[in-house]
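Hi R.,

As promised on Friday, here is the backbone we talked about, encoded as structure tokens. Could you run it through your design pipeline when you get a chance and send me back a sequence?
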């Protein structure tokens, strides 16, 4: 289950009545949001006025980012960008901060053929990207240095930067911002009183918005209308998750659809939005007997998995199931008699795949370095 601090923060974010101490915490968080906002404004002003430089790499860089903390679909969007570039005949690489990793120095996670580091060295999202995409991946607190390392080791290619909107020290040729269609501006409250890393004005630095987790066309239309005056004539694309299938979490081997569809499973995850994960499993045709949620980016241990499987067996579950992000955080010594499946997600663009490809082609139209 989520940590106490995470559960408390969720209460602070809300507006429901509570004890006096909760009101005091909310007041303190509101004051903290003003201070945080002032710091963000000063940092952005320093970049806008040239006091802080944005360094350029010798290849195009496509940035994928968001405004809010807590699961807006940046990782699936990063995968979609890389796959679209491959379809265009352009080699790609991924650079990332590597949230939760040990160390800050740049590190090559994958050379496109071999995984060269473990989750402690890389963080969960870069390792997942390295496993799912046959492209080089590098991490580093400085994305510029990570990009330099990747290009030095693997040659020129278009770089896709995961979580780049707030990292202004690296110049991007295209800024894509992922926003959750159900609440695109996340209540418009800054951290720590809200979930925003930056205010909505940051959308001025984006060349396009991608609405994620879209339920239907009506929701997409409503979200687009709410953003139209901020985005002007810039593209606002809409997409939804599509479950490509399930795989054996340890081996990464795909499971035939007839072996998992309709089967009873016991779900667990360390994600910011566990209920969204449950909904995606049910939509895929799985029978979800239960879901246990841990803190975001939780590192699982053998004892936790043993306990989960014991509870799952009492409900006659065929297997445990987790997300792809969770799969890279499973313990190395997981007993072989505990069946764990993980999901493989992709994005389905409601405007058609060509709309996304045209957006990328336009951004890269002046660069012929790897053709």
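Update: got your reply. Pasting your designed sequence below so it's all in one thread:
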């Amino acid at each position: 289950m989520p940590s106490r601090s995470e559960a408390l923060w969720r209460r602070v974010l809300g507006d429901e009545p509570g004890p006096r101490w909760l009101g005091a915490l909310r007041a303190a968080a509101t004051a903290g949001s003003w201070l945080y906002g002032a710091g963000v404004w000063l940092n952005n002003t320093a970049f806008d006025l040239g006091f802080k430089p944005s360094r350029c790499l010798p290849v195009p860089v496509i940035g994928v980012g968001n405004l809010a903390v807590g699961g807006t679909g940046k990782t699936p969007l990063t995968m979609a960008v890389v796959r679209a570039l491959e379809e265009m005949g352009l080699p790609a690489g991924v650079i990332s901060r590597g949230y939760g990793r040990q160390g800050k120095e740049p590190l090559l996670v994958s050379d496109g053929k071999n995984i060269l580091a473990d989750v402690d060295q890389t963080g969960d999202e870069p390792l997942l990207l390295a496993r799912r995409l046959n492209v080089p991946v590098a991490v580093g607190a400085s994305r510029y240095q990570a990009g330099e390392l990747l290009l030095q080791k693997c040659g020129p290619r278009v770089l896709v930067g995961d979580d780049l909107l707030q990292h202004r020290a690296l110049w991007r040729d295209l800024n894509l911002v992922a926003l959750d269609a159900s609440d695109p501006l996340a209540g418009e409250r800054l951290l720590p009183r809200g979930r925003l890393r930056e205010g909505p004005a940051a959308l001025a630095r984006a060349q396009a918005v991608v609405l994620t987790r879209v339920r239907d066309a009506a929701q997409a239309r409503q979200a687009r209308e709410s953003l139209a005056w901020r985005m002007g004539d810039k593209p606002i694309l809409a997409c939804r998750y599509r479950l490509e299938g399930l795989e054996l979490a340890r081996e990464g081997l795909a499971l035939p659809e007839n072996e998992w569809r309709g089967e009873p499973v016991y779900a667990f995850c360390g994600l910011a939005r566990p209920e969204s994960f449950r909904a995606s499993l049910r939509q895929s045709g799985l029978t979800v007997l239960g879901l246990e949620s841990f803190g975001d980016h939780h590192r699982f241990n053998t004892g936790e998995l043993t306990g989960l499987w014991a509870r799952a067996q009492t409900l006659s579950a065929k297997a445990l199931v987790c997300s792809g992000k969770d799969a890279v955080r499973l313990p190395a010594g997981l007993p072989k008699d505990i069946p764990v499946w993980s999901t493989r997600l992709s994005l389905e663009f409601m405007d058609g795949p060509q709309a996304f490809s045209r957006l990328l082609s336009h951004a890269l139209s002046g660069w012929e370095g790897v053709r």
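One thing I noticed while checking it: The mean pLDDT is 92.

Thanks again,
M.
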